[in-house]
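Practice problem: Dihydrodipicolinate synthase family protein
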Amino acid sequence: MPVTSSARFDERKRRLSGVVAIPVTPFDADGAVDPETYAKLVDRVITAGVEVVTPNGNTGEFYALDEAETRHCLELTVEAAAGRVSVVAGVGHDVGTAIGAARHAREAGAGLIMIHQPVHPYVSVEGWVEYHRAIAAAVPELGVVLYVRDARIEGEQLARLADAAENVIGVKYAVPDPVRFAAVARDAGLRRFVWIAGLAELSAPGYFAVGATGFTSGLVNVAPSLSLEMLRSLRDGDFRAAMACWERVRPFEELRAADGNANNVSVVKEALAQLGLCRRAVRPPSRPLTPGERERVTAALWPGLLAR
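Answer key — structure tokens:
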């Protein structure tokens, strides 16, 4: 019996309804991607129980990597995952580059792609739909996750896009408005997509309350057990327990969000450096933390994130 298109993506959709880890991209002393450390960091979150890993996400400094580096990071992730989890390759830039990256992801063994928000000063809603349709159509075998950061995108556009490309199965919603999210999800089809809270742990309880079933995480690089604990609480509908996790996460995540998210990746890498897992180096336009900021990361780690 042939496998239907919906059944073909069932397992990938199930895994997306969880913690979607966005690994950092570690650099060596010369500033190049450090493959050994990268593989260890990916294995660490998988061993902890995470079922989805997204190389070349924003926490992975996607826009600071060149094409060869993003392909290398994806290949390292697929190799480290060794079939244990779903790999969602971050792709983006112009349509041709994104399609090339998506096809490489398919050839490398990834099962899904996440399409970054278009980087263009003049984005029309219709153009947004066509951008994503063209990329999804080029790789019909891969599941596609949309990364929505534009509040102008409504449920109508998402539904129309899924009508045109049935492999569009997930939405990473990163507009900081849970009320709007609730409306968009229902207008698009609450059960048609996997709805992922795209603003990580601090937004997860509010977004789960109105329809999300997964959330993205950069924090998971540092404290995977805490991210998974929050997920279990949210799945159980135990919002008291979920908010206990939220309170532990809050100081660290607020450091990341400060100054318009300027130190988002720097804070994660600093924490990993303090744990002896990764160098703290980031690439411009990010910057390393000041000594005072490093002290605040230390205070957020112990006993907060790493409390037993």
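Discussion: The radius of gyration is 18 Å. Students who identified this feature from the tokens alone can consider the problem solved.
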